[in-house]
């Protein structure tokens, strides 16, 4: 990774640095086969009027920990199970986003959410608490970007005025669902990632003065044949490449035309693979590219390739990224989260890992 963030230091790029680097290695855009657009442009861009990020104690000690709105001191949230703790974190993020926008649940037209647990139970139980129309979605670690894309399209079309988008993940719940029970003490390979204990919620509105979502790129399922449940970065990088290429093709832009391109949860290895894949297609991802999974932990925390889980990018985007957009450090950010769409049993049955990446453009 080309950018090292340290606690207490300026976490992020400044526009002057980006513009200086934009003049270097600007690639010639390759001739891509034209087809139907994957990108939709919003005539009435929704605004982000409320947001909240909740993170675990381990995540709070990481490089972007000072940006999180709430850091919990107990991974069980003083509950009996980790699953109940995940639900509590998600509900705390939703309530915090409503509080920041000074609205109540009854003011919200639709709730769009998902998570990693079987049948997206954390999200559904949160919807039970809110008692408003609910759309449950599943896109693994790209659940928030998918939710934002769907919510933005509905608001732009005039169907709804206010939509809450949210997701969460928990290290302990994801481990025993997708890998091994914690008590087993399984040794992780060096290319593995650490599921982030965090939640994020974003409240979209047809009115307001917040950061706008101006377009969304819907990804397609991409599978390069990886079947290792620990190697999420290598599995998801091709999907990120496919959706970024669609964005550049549909908009006629290149990497240098964004203050920041941020992917969701490729980790250090996956980010390097994405850089190589994009370079082969004629695009150089420079210093204005980072990955949420690479930001959450530092090397002293021994989280191997970094963070993963749908709460990873949800918490980083709703804190660090939107803070930087709000204070003027960034003006235009491409947020492309990635998700691995396998089940807990599919790889054991000989299947490879299908992946997807959905993205939205955030602008001041």
Supply database-style keywords:
364 residues; globular; alpha/beta; six-stranded mixed beta sheet; Peroxisomal Thiolase, Chain A, domain 1
General description of the model:
The protein has 364 residues and is α/β, with parallel strands linked by helices. The chain folds into two domains: 15-29 and 210-363, Stage V sporulation protein AD (Peroxisomal Thiolase, Chain A, domain 1), CATH 3.40.47; 45-205, 3-Layer(aba) Sandwich (Peroxisomal Thiolase, Chain A, domain 1), CATH 3.40.47.40. 33% of the residues lie in helices and 21% in strands. The protein has helices spanning 15-22, 57-60, 82-101, 121-130, 143-156, 171-178, 232-251, 267-280, 292-296, 310-326, and strands spanning 39-41, 47-55, 70-71, 110-115, 134-136, 162-169, 194-195, 198-205, 212-217, 260-264, 289-291, 307-308, 332-340, 355-363. The strands form three sheets. It has a six-stranded mixed β-sheet, with helices on both faces. The chain has a six-stranded mixed β-sheet with strand order 3-2-8-6-4-5, sandwiched between helices. Helix 3 packs across helix 4 (121-130) and helix 7 packs across helix 8 (267-280). The chain is globular and about 50 Å long. The protein starts with 14 loop residues before the first helix and ends with a strand.
């Amino acid at each position: 990774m080309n950018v090292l963030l340290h606690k207490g230091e300026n976490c992020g790029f400044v526009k002057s640095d980006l513009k200086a680097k934009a003049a270097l290695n600007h690639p010639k855009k390759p001739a891509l086969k034209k087809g139907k657009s994957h990108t939709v442009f919003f005539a009435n861009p929704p605004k982000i009027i409320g947001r909240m990020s909740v993170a675990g104690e381990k995540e709070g000690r990481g490089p972007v920990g000072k940006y999180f709105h709430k850091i919990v001191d107990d991974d069980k949230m003083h509950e009996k199970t980790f699953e109940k703790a995940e639900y509590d974190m998600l509900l705390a993020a939703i309530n915090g986003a409503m509080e920041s926008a000074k609205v109540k649940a009854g003011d919200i037209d639709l709730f769009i959410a998902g998570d990693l647990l079987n049948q997206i139970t954390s999200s559904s139980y949160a919807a039970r608490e809110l008692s408003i129309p609910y759309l449950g979605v599943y896109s693994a670690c790209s659940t928030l970007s998918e939710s934002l894309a769907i919510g933005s399209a509905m608001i732009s079309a005039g169907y709804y005025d206010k939509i809450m988008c949210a997701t969460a993940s928990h290290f302990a719940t994801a481990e025993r669902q997708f890998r091994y029970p914690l008590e087993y003490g399984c040794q992780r390979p060096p290319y593995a990632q650490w599921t982030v204990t965090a939640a994020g919620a974003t409240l979209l509105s047809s009115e307001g003065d917040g950061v706008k979502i101006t377009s969304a790129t819907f990804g397609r399922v991409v599978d390069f044949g990886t079947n290792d449940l620990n190697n999420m970065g290598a599995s998801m990088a091709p999907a990120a490449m496919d959706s970024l290429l669609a964005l550049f093709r549909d908009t006629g832009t290149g990497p240098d035309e964004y203050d920041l391109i941020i992917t969701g949860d490729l980790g250090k290895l996956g980010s390097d693979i994405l850089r190589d894949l994009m370079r082969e297609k004629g695009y150089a991802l420079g210093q204005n590219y980072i990955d949420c999974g690479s930001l959450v932990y530092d090397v002293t925390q021994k989280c191997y390739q970094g963070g993963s889980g749908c709460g990873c990018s949800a918490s980083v985007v709703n804190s660090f990224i939107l803070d930087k957009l709000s204070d003027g450090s960034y003006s235009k950010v491409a947020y492309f989260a990635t998700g691995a769409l396998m089940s807990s049993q599919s790889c054991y049955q000989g299947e490879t890992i299908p992946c997807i990446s959905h993205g939205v453009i955030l602008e001041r």
